[in-house]
Amino acid sequence: MQHMQHSKENGFTITELVLVMVIIAMVVGVFSQMLVSSNQSASISRARVDINRNLHNSMDAIETDVRQAVRFKASGYDGYDTFAVDRSFSGAGHSWSYMNTPYVNGTNRVLILLQYATTMGHGADSRQIVYLRTPGGDCATKKTQQPKYKKIIIYFLNNGELHRRTIYNDMIDSYGHPYSGSAGNYFCMNHAEANKFKDRAMKVHQDSILATSVSEFEVEYYEGKTKIPDQYDAVKSYPGILDSADNVVVTLKLQSPSKQISESQTLTIRKINNL
Q1: How many Å apart are CA 193 and CA 131, to the nearest integer?
Q2: What is the dihedral of CA 188, 190, 193, 199, to 10 degrees?
Q3: For residues 8 and 13, what is the distance between their CA atoms, to the nearest angstrom?
Q4: For residue 60, what pLDDT is reported?
Q5: Nearest to 151 by CA among 218, 198, 108
Q6: Distance (Å, whole) CA 201 – CA 150
Q7: HSE on the CB side for 196, CA within 13 Å?
């Protein structure tokens, strides 16, 4: 009897193929989830780094400006030593108050700092204090004995952004009226330098936006360790309520758009200058 030999080919059954496909799908799913999770973690880490960088840079700027301030102001125009009208607003301009901002989306906390104006902009190494020329005053040999020209620095929120704005005092004569003479007769400078400085000081300055996604900006004023009483009471507040303050406690809080990340910092800052 002749026996016929049949060759048997090895292969996968349908059941085995389905099982393999299920396993592959599970592995791909797990890997994809790990990849998504890794991307999310990296995105959160980047957002946290950005928030902390903006937070620290903003607080550094505030600290520098507070230390250089000569007075904390309740108003940008008090008729005493501050005559700063914000002409970025239409019409006659706007005088700022520490109690509130003129912006609909702003908050009720505004930091107004009175500083001595300098010949060059913020951060320039060779800047010098600007002095006023008074009748009979000697700008040649006794310039530093002349009154100092001033400006205000304002920190405020608008649409979740922390703004820094600079406004120079209006040019006022000794009677408190607008000055209409030449810049060279107003500042202790030669006429060319005085005109150049006047053009820079009187123009509307562009805000510096220090941080976005700001959810909180709080300012509290102290004289030594004593909190200025009734400082945010609209009824009891008065123009000189902050004159005795020598330090502030500033709280700044930033939050990511997704609100997954939130970082805050509170800093006590003492000014080192006095009028």
Answers
A1: 13
A2: 70
A3: 14
A4: 96
A5: 198
A6: 10
A7: 9
Asked if residue 116 lies in contact with residue 128, where contact means CB atoms within 8 angstroms, the answer is no
In angstroms, the CA 252 to CA 219 distance is: 9
pLDDT of residue 37: 67
Predicted model pTM: 0.81
Please give the angle made by the CA atoms of 162, 223 and 103, to the nearest 5 degrees: 25
Percent of the chain scoring above 90 in pLDDT: 51
59-68, 105-114, 139-148, 203-212, range with greatest mean pLDDT: 59-68
Shortest CA distance to 71 belongs to which of 128, 115, 122? 115
pLDDT, residue 1, reads: 47
Does 153 have pLDDT greater than 60?
Answer: yes
Question: How do strand 208-211 and strand 161-168 relate by DSSP bridges?
Answer: antiparallel
What's the rounded Cα separation, in Å, for the pair 230 and 235? 9
Q: CA-CA distance, 229 to 220, in Å (whole number)?
A: 10
